[in-house]
Amino acid sequence: MKISLSSGTSSPLDKTKKGKLTNLPRQQFYSKKHPNPALPEIASVGCTTSMSIKQFYPQILEQAENAVIIIDENDEIVFFNGNAERLWGRRRDTVQGANISLLMPPLKDDQQTPFPGQSGIDLLVGHHVELPIERPNHTRVWAEISVSRIETTHILYLVVAKNITLNKVYKTLRYHVLQVMAQTESLQEVLNLLCQEIAHIAPEISATIAQIDRSGLLRTLAAPGFPTEYIGQIDGIEPRPQTTCLGLAAFRGESVLARDIENDPGWTVARLETLELGYKSCWAIPIKARNGRVIGVLAFYYRVCRRPNKLHAQLAEVASSLCTMAMEQAESRARIHHLAFFDSLTNLPNRSLLYVHANQAIAQATRDNSQLAVLFIDVDHFKQVNDSLGHPAGDALLCIVAERLSEAIREVDILCRYSGDEFVIVLTQCDSMHATDLAGRLLAVLSEPCQVGDIPLTPAASIGISLFPENGRDMDTLIHAADMAMYQAKQKGRGCFSFFSGQLNQIAKERFALESSLREALETNQLRLYYQPQINIETHRLHGIEALARWNDPRLGHISPSRFIPLAEKSGLMNYLSQWVLNEACRQFAQWRMRGFTLPSVSVNLSPTDFHNLKLPQYVEAILRSHGMLPSDLLIEITEGVLMDSNPNVIRTINEIRALGVRLSIDDFGTGYSSLAYLRNLPVNELKLDQSFVRDLGRDRSTRALTNAIIHIGDSMGLLVVAEGVEHSTQRNLLKAQGYQIVQGNLFSPPLPPEELENWLTENLSFTQWR
Q1: Cβ-contact 768, 543 below 8 angstroms
Q2: pLDDT score at 739
Q3: Contact 15, 141 (CB under 8 A)
Q4: Helices (H), ranges, 369-454
Q5: CA–CA gap between residue 743 and residue 751 (Å, rounded)
Q6: 56-74 per-position pLDDT tens digit
Q7: What is residue 433's DSSP assignment?
Q8: Coil, helix or strand for 294?
């Protein structure tokens, strides 16, 4: 056995000078009053000790807290107190005169070579060592031993030993288990090591460890030495009585001993099989989490009918705490893995895990020369559900969609929540025909009515499909192709599916080229603002001007706002475009004012996404200050969609902008889905009647009824109503008859570049005065 020596404090007896050992035969070292040998007489220089004190030496050492042994110069035991009897498990009359090697194994060096001599007891002098003690009953304990050398006319050794089994067991188990826990994420590997360490410390024990799974059943994770067939028979038992003592311990949350398995009425599962393995008794200890919840069971099996001893209880205490630590760490790792790779709402794999599994599927399809399909699924009208019914309803709808998709696909297929209301399915070994069949079934399944809270809903989805290897050989390309096909399906009317085609790829390339050109246009100031007058048809005076962005690309020519503004919103460029429009409109307005043009105000359009930015009010205020404008000089036009936006920053941003004194207008009023309750609670100043109403005004009675209702809504709420898109005098006259005062359209002037607007203002001086 390898022994580690550590420097310690020597006993005061080490300092005793050479004295005279009483010249008595060995057998006279034992007094008649005490069964242990009498201590030899030790004479110290400069000190006299009365015989009245010396006679109590045996009694003093007998009552010492630790085990005490005295060895003579021949390594033979001459004193052995009661605590030594209990530590070594031997009666003193069996060790009297015996060599110390009976109690302690020979010491060995680092190469496991025994030191010269019988015991090497001299090597221990002045040190503390930890040694295993093998008892006659084949149990093992650990002792911390210190040795002092006593020099008289003879040489004696005083051995003091302390039982450190519990501390040693705890340290040994903890060290080895924690070391493995740091090196591996396998819970089974850690628990198997723990069982093996228990068997090493107490060979009479065969240990098993089971964990309670999510369904509440006991699953064996570690059982070294037990046959696989037997584990299969006891695996999955319920935590309840009338199973085994393991089930009962998990049920009660306390230790249970089956001292005689053969005759234990509570052991009903695999009793005969347990006995055939040679196990006669079993002690089960519940493993508890830090909150007291039972999470598993540690079991000690014995080959004799018996009770656990103190060492076993100590092992159970240490091992169960280590099991708790290992299981909770595994649970934490599982939670982290789930958070990293699964969607928290639907419990579906997320985008990260999709790519892991999809790349494996693509690699397998490449090896097998087979096909697979990627389906990109988007829930139709999901934003309306979120906005009108709230986020909890939207979340419930997503969970319903996820559940229906999961039930409709095969186990070998891969489903994930890609983002928001988008899902992706990878169909392995699937050609276009099978993809068509499944897409049709999915649309049918998803469109079945459902209940979200108390609201009946009929979901719908649009599906885009790409194929491997025709449309791409990697996941990014296939996802991109399926995404484009999904948008094609939405353009076809939603609630349908579309395959990716070369034409869609060409559209995607054109869109990418357009996006790149737009970025360049913003960076090189290629965009321009045009301005369209707004006229008061009662006073024939200028009411204001609206700034409108225009783009004439040197390579692509004129690009309509209906193309580049949605593109800016989708590509994340809208914030830069809006800031440019605000700054340029205010700069031009301030310049006209300085040159003597009397302009009431300028209005600019902002995107719904601009109002997600909490810094927008500060930016507007800084722009006005830099150009010397009053807040009332600026009017910001917003769409009805902004009012219904679920982002909590929107209303806050709107209120802060209005608090600056900047006026707000709702553009394209009547085409959205806002309610009058929203209008009543928001700080808007005007409504802009959408030009679609103006266009049909002369030929559609219902349109005239709607425009008449809108002007009355504005009047009743104290809001100015502006009609845009006035092209003909008939439209102007009808609007005027209904009470509209402010109009805008090509009848008066198309949108003009700054220099042409200046000419228009000069030619129409009557319009350039204040109302």
Answers
A1: no
A2: 93
A3: no
A4: 382-389, 391-408, 432-446
A5: 14
A6: 667 888 888 899 999 988 8
A7: H
A8: strand
